[in-house]
Design brief:
CATH architecture of the largest domain: 3-Layer(aba) Sandwich
CATH topology of the largest domain: Rossmann fold
CATH superfamily of the largest domain: Glycogen Phosphorylase B
CATH class of the largest domain: Alpha Beta
Helix content: 40-55%
Number of strands: 13
Strand content: 15-25%
Largest sheet: 7 strands, parallel
Strand order of the largest sheet: 3-2-1-4-5-6-7
Length: 395
């Protein structure tokens, strides 16, 4: 069975790119995967023989590149399909990367995984309370073009045939907002638990020499955008007031405004470090260096970084938003805090750093949970079931 996986994001911007890679690698052997994506400046991993990558352009900016990809996909899809005879198209929302295909019609059946919605993103961005000029391009454009994007999204969702949702939260939101999703599968995101697992710390510090010798590292990994709660994290570190705690921020996008915010809060570069983008292959060696991983987001659906940290043996502290409570049970396999509450975040960080017995128990239970419920193999097996059921319905 030949699957065309459609996404402009391929190990470049965030969780959707990771999702596509893990799914493609772990599908059963009778599936041949064609990734239709954008080329980025990062080194790409070697893929197995049954995965073929088709670049339809180059990734530069998360908002404009997605729009360019929609047009490139529409122009090239017929030729690609004639050459490879796809049985199924698998796309991802909220990118709506196959919007033109859905609007103009395609003879190939499709499945859409819904990772988030326009309104879910908007709510997270607005909760940050930052002026428009301080927002990342994609966040700013989403707010400016909100009426148009909402209309396009509503049309898009009505054109979707078979749907997969990454969390109960996002399915319930789509049922309320669009009247779609009732009875559709929720398949939680999954990760490679052998890739994200215990590592030799000397190998980790060899890849991140700037962190060698630092203790009490609190790690954030994700896009450098407002809805991720970076402002809350900075305020939490200021509230902690401990010079022996080092916050490290890794992720795509400009960190300039966040660095300036940290300096205004009195946090120097030795205690509040922004190390920029980290390749997907290096991320498994970053998590084990941290004493805690934080994701203080104002909006999330089912974040891959939380699963990666849980699997890597790093205690996780995350906002209790969206689908996060579907992956973390508070104080059993992670810590949940209210969003936008820097004092609660600071208190949870202090607890994890000081209570080593609790931190250890969180790590053990978290890895067990990810291996049992959120592995890439589980996700791929369940997705393959949807593929086969969709094709049976169309035959």
């Amino acid at each position: 069975m030949r699957i065309a996986m459609v996404t402009p994001e391929y190990l470049s911007w965030g969780g959707v790119g990771s999702y596509v890679v893990q799914l493609a690698r772990n599908l059963p052997s009778d599936f041949e995967v064609h990734l239709l994506c954008l080329r980025n400046d990062r080194s790409e991993p070697r893929e197995c023989d049954r995965i073929t990558v088709h670049h339809l352009g180059r990734s530069r900016d998360t908002f404009m590149s997605n729009n360019q990809f929609q047009l490139a996909l529409w122009r090239s899809f017929r030729d690609l399909n004639d050459a490879h005879h796809f049985d199924l198209v698998h796309s991802n929302h909220a990118q709506m990367s196959d919007l033109l295909l859905k609007m103009l019609g395609s003879e190939v059946p499709s499945i859409t995984t819904v990772h988030t919605t326009i309104d879910s993103q908007r709510m997270g961005t607005k909760a940050a309370g930052l002026p428009l000029g301080m927002l990342e391009t994609s966040e700013r454009m989403t707010l400016l073009l909100l009426p148009f994007l909402r209309t396009a999204e509503r049309l898009y969702m009505r054109k979707c045939g078979s749907l997969i949702f990454v969390s109960e939260f996002i399915r319930d939101m789509c049922i309320r907002s669009f009247g779609v999703g009732e009875g559709c599968r929720v398949i939680h995101n999954g990760i490679d638990t052998s890739m994200f697992g215990p590592k030799d710390l000397s190998e980790c510090t060899a890849r991140f020499p700037m962190l060698d010798g630092l203790e009490n590292i609190v790690l954030f990994s994700g896009r450098m955008i407002a809805l991720k709660g970076i402002a809350t994290a900075i305020e939490a570190q200021r509230t902690l007031g401990r010079r022996d705690v080092h916050f490290v921020y890794a992720g795509n996008g400009s960190s300039k405004q966040w660095e300036e915010m940290a300096r205004r809060a009195g946090l120097d570069r030795s205690r509040c470090m922004f190390i920029g983008p980290v390749s997907y292959g290096d991320m498994p060696y970053l998590y084990p260096l941290a004493s805690a991983f934080i994701l203080p987001s104002y909006s999330e659906s089912f974040p891959m970084t939380v699963l990666e940290a849980m699997s890597s043996g790093t205690p996780v502290i995350a906002s209790s938003v969206g689908g996060v409570p579907e992956m973390i049970t508070n104080r059993r396999d992670g810590m949940l805090v209210p969003p936008m509450d820097h004092r609660a975040l600071a208190e949870a960080i202090s607890t994890v750093l000081s209570d080593h017995r609790l931190a250890r128990s969180l790590c053990v239970r978290a890895r067990d949970k990810v291996q049992a419920n959120f592995s890439a193999s589980v996700m791929a097996r369940q997705t393959a079931e949807v593929y086969r059921a969709t094709l049976e319905e169309c035959s």
